[in-house]
From TrEMBL:
An MF annotation (GO) of this entry: S-adenosylmethionine-dependent methyltransferase activity
Domain called Methyltransferase type: residue spans: 152-251
Protein name: Methyltransferase type 11 domain-containing protein
Origin superkingdom: Eukaryota
Pfam families: Methyltransf_11
Lineage: Eukaryota, Viridiplantae, Streptophyta, Embryophyta, Tracheophyta
CDD domains: AdoMet_MTases
Length: 322
């Protein structure tokens, strides 16, 4: 998400496409308490199962930026040289046998300063984006009202979505994120949303190996996350695994622009730089296709283009039913 702020001179002046989301009536069973869903419950069998499902990471081609000034390019390239690179996942043959090893495998530790810088940037630079997308999020998260008590948010980051769905009494939220520096922001957002401290738990983990039991949550939420995970398909399988039958997966993701467009060309050029500056975020993923093919019983989504999102357009917004 960092690059988009640097390039937010807006390729798109206005929001396009306001196709309405269909209301979802899927009934979701209610869980009574937060403690119903145990943590760190992955057994060796589950890990072995995961091992079989690990696929090769998505990769991208190399190129450089051409759509900004030379000074911007030099500054960005210079900064990128100082930053850590983020392999899609570790390439060693030995498969880890505990949750921490899974975390390290799919999200190798970044330097503290980098994690902090990214968390701070996410906390301060997203305000205009969040203001623009507010209407879409309100409509999307309204589908959770009265439907979901146990909610998992993957890649929760600073917690910008909590205010939309966490204020309903009895809601418990697990926020998964591999960046510990996000935790303080997410905790503050949970508190501001009126969530009692006991009903929010930040889990230092990755979407590819969720530390929750099978069929244990009513809904999974993910916004701007599948661009960053190391293995999209594995993350989607994990989402389906932890969702109860009939449970909902609500998503907002940015995806590759249409092939052959100028925007798509620019995304291709800047993808490597984006991954370095924005903690592994890819600009060119076809995440909508991945979600559609993940095995959900029904996927209902639409595309929007946001003027504040610059290169990270278009977005797909939708709901999938487990
Ligand atoms: C662009 S931020 C979006 C944060 C938040 N969802 C939002 O909408 O502002 C991407 C987030 O995904 C997290 N992330 C990166 N890799 C992940 C993974 N493998 N599993 C879960 N979260 C991951 C990052 O730490 C970061 O908090």
């Amino acid at each position: 998400m960092l690059i988009h702020t640097a390039f937010s001179t807006s390729l798109y002046p206005k929001i396009h496409n306001t196709q309405k989301l269909k209301t979802v009536n899927s009934s979701v069973s209610e869980s009574k308490t937060f403690n119903d869903v145990p943590f760190n419950s992955q057994t060796q069998n589950e890990l072995n199962h995961l091992k079989k499902r690990v696929k090769d990471p998505l990769s991208c081609s190399n190129s450089i930026c051409f759509c900004c000034s030379r000074r911007d390019i030099m500054a960005a390239v210079g900064a990128a040289a100082l930053l850590p690179s983020h392999p899609s996942h570790a390439s060693d043959d030995s498969f880890p046998t505990d949750a921490m090893a899974m975390l390290n495998r799919f999200h190798p530790p970044r330097p503290d300063w980098y994690a902090e810088l990214y968390a701070t940037a996410m906390n301060t630079s997203m305000k205009s984006y969040e203001a623009e997308i507010e209407g879409y999020k309100s409509e999307l998260f309204a589908n959770l009202r009265g439907q979901a008590k146990q909610i998992l948010e993957i890649g929760i980051g600073t917690g910008p979505n909590l205010k939309y769905y966490a204020s309903e009494g009895g809601t418990s939220v697990y926020g998964v994120d591999p960046n510990r520096k996000m935790e303080k922001y997410a905790q503050a957002a949970a508190e501001a949303a009126g969530l009692p401290p006991a009903n929010f738990k930040f889990l230092h983990a990755v979407s590819e190996s969720l530390p929750l039991r099978d069929a244990s949550v009513d809904a999974v939420i993910g916004t701007l996350v599948l661009c960053s995970v190391a293995d999209v398909n594995l993350a989607l399988q994990e989402i389906r695994r932890v969702l109860k039958p009939g449970g909902l997966y609500l998503f907002v993701e940015h995806v590759a622009a249409t092939d052959g467009t100028v925007l798509r060309f620019v995304q291709q050029l800047l993808d490597p730089l984006q991954q370095t500056l924005a903690d592994g975020c890819h600009l060119t993923r076809k995440t909508g296709k991945d979600i559609t093919e993940a095995g959900f019983s029904n996927v209902d989504s639409h595309q929007v283009v946001l003027s504040t999102a610059s290169l990270i357009n278009p977005h797909i917004i939708g709901i999938a039913h487990n």
